Amino acid sequence: MSEFNIKVTNICFSYPDGYEAIKDLSFDIRHGESVGIIGANGAGKSTLLMILMGLMFPICGEITIDGVLITKNTLPKIRQSLGMVFQNPDDQLFLSTVYEDVAFGPRNYKLDEEEVCNRVCDALEMVGISHLKERASFKLSDGEKRLAAIASVLSMQPEALIMDEPTSTLDPKARRRIIQLLNSLHHTKIITSHDLDMILDTCERVIVIKEGRIAADGKTKDLLSDETLLDHCGLEMPLSFQKRRST
């Protein structure tokens, strides 16, 4: 993969009802970084992800992806660089089999079927579910659905992965499997989650958002052990840190 960067500069966003969700927000993400974006409900995390993917556009400021400014005209190119895994896998899995779901993106690129097959097989092997390729997606467990959704994004070979609550609804074993997978991927990763122990395990850097602004940006262990900061932002320390304090 080439050197890749994401630059967010002074963006702001308001909804039609006047609610100001993002306020003068700026940050850079460098190639290969794994960055957690955390905050209480309503802090602006989901809005930020939608803006990064070009599903909405800021009313001020700008975002460049590998030097390309996000506009309506550049969205096709941007979406070849960024792949988003939604919180609910059912939003991404809608065809007859896992294979067909994972092939959907590459086929939209008008690739020949041999290349599509290679990409699908590589993506399924990467997430460890090659044996499920002929299964109906709706019959999968929650953990298997999450892996299939990730594979559907990996098959498009993006430079960066944007993931919204990747461990929500998962049992402990499936959660651990997702964490291990995330740590094995060398893509640039942006992860939002309320599962701060997962963020601690997968991200070397954290951006804390409070009421649409950046409250802190730094090393994960430093910020997630700062009880005063987290309390101010409506968050609690990861359980693993809480246990250490109680012993």
Q: What would you say this structure looks like, in words?
A:
The protein is an alpha/beta fold. The protein has a domain of 171 residues: Rossmann fold, CATH 3.40.50.300. Helix content is 38%, strand content 24%. The chain has 10 helices and 10 strands. Strands 6-7-8-3-9-10 form a 6-stranded mixed beta sheet, with helices on both faces. Strands 2-1-4-5 form a 4-stranded antiparallel beta sheet, covered by helices on one side. Strand 9 and strand 10 form a beta hairpin. Helix 3 packs across helix 4. The radius of gyration is 18 Å and the shape is globular. The N and C termini lie far apart (44 Å).
User: Structural class, please?
Assistant: alpha/beta
Query: pLDDT below 50 for ≥5 consecutive residues: which ranges?
Result: none
Task: Please list the strands of the largest sheet in the order they lie side by side.
Answer: 6-7-8-3-9-10
Proper CATH architecture of the domain at 6-89 and 160-246:
3-Layer(aba) Sandwich
